[in-house]
Amino acid sequence: MRKILFILLLVCSVVVAKAQVDSSIFRYPIEMDEVVIRDPSFDIQGFMRRVRTDTTFYKAFRSLRMTNYSAINDIKVFSKKGKVKASLHSRTKQARSKGCRTMKTEEETVTGDFYKRNGDYRYYTAELYAYLFFTKGSVCGESDVVAGYLNERGKGAIEKSIFQLKQLIFNPGAKINGIPMMGDKAAIFEPDQAKRYDFKVYSETYAGIDCYVFKAIPKQGEKGKVVYNDLTTWFRKSDYSIVARDYSLSYNTLAYDFDVRMKVRTQLIGGKLIPTRIDYDGDWHVFTQDRERVKFTAQFTF
Fold first, then answer.
1. Domain total for the chain?
2. Average pLDDT rounded to a whole number, residues 184-191
3. How do beta strands 197-206 and 30-32 pair?
4. What is the pLDDT of residues 98-122, one digit of tens each?
């Protein structure tokens, strides 16, 4: 009897050890529709690994810097009463030549106090937008290779924010370091947070493209305790590249609060996946700064 119990304990310890080592296995319930369940080629664990490790989305944004395009930039800053108090609407054109990119502003309309007297951006969201999508002078030596770049950390305040933003947008579900009082709440695939969410995978046609859709939403009673209110991603069935992604994030502490919604759409342009439209609607406040309520749309044509 003791020998049998010993063997059972040994087997159990081996199983537990394997479970601890194999962190790629997702162990929480996932609701799947009938189309997905009946698809003999669909591997749910393989799909979840793709969800958690995808780099095609980040590569798409890097590829934008390698491409000639025109952009319509529309940024609106709102007052507490919901009225537009400052705005920028512009048309820009990026050109690449001999490994470098430059940008020309073809038209620009500004209202309110969008700029400071010295020409700097008055609003942090606008400064962040400019850092991401506007180019000063000539920028050279770039590539759309993504290996290692997602983990790059800059030294300045704007670079630090860019790093945190990259994690939230391109690596959703990862722990975000450097944001106080949030802890691991952004890490929705880790056990402490995964138990707070309902996960769904289903088949859907999006813009004429056959997709697998991954969706994460808080369980009943958990909203307000988590960071992601909704994370929905459309993966092209043929190559698992990301066709579209919707985000809704919010969190509230004594030091800061934010409520942000984003939609990103991509297309294959010249064989490369590239973003074609980004919609942002954000309301956030940090105790050292004024509250910002900003909506922006970036639309790219090639």
1. 1
2. 88
3. parallel
4. 999 999 999 999 999 999 999 999 9
